[in-house]
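Tutorial, part two.
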Amino acid sequence: MDVVPSLNPDSPRVRFSAEMRRLREAAELSQAAVAARLGCTQTQVSRLEKATRTPSRSDAERLDLLFGTSGGGSFAQLHERIVSQPGNPPWFRNWAEEIEPTLLVLRSWDPLLVPGLLQTEAYARHIFSHGPRIKPDEVDERVEARMRRQRILDREDPPLLLMLVDEGVLQRRIGGAEVMHEQLGHLLEMTHRPDVFLQVVDPECVAGLAGAFMIAELPNGQPDVVSSDSPAQAYITTERDTVASIWHRYEALRIWAYPERISLQKIEEARRRWT
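Running the prediction step on this input gives:
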């Protein structure tokens, strides 16, 4: 995945890139020389040093051999932190730690569930607890990770959220009537904020049946990043044609979205039914 957002300087991926560049320059090696030792191209080394390429296990091990690094600062250990962040699946780590914290605008569509950034703890816990072969401590980690993600909404300059959900989401029982009543009440509370806009989409719309997605608008003229769901993992990319395709789908969905006032009425009506 070649994305170029303003990365979190404390993330292991950025630390990996900074340490790689520091040690290479200290050893007076060119990027081409390092590429030869890693068995890759100079462009790939450049992307590793810019944190726009996720390092492989082989990259980390060869860098440790090249620079004689070991212990807590080894490239192998940083690689492990990159791919195994507790609470978030490895494929989601770059989005949760490096895309969302820098967001200006997030546009999203979900045909099945309340968007993660607007979920209550009880709603999220029920979803995670029914995952296949999941352990109780894994449920706790994932719930905690989801709640941590929501902290971006409490920063001084929170992102603008433009979220579309299928009307069926309001009727889908997740955790029982009490959980649903609380969740829909939380949605209504969140829409009072000036930076959160939620619209309900007519259930006859078929444009979004291919699955959920998110479009991240980033600062400093950086390219939009999209994340689209599949049963196993999300596909995250800045590839121009894919981003354009997701944008077109988002606009097609907006045509079927109820105005905000009507959307809030539908959420309130559904909340009453879950009493």
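The CA atoms of residues 167 and 219 lie 32 Å apart. In part three we will examine how such features are distributed along the chain.
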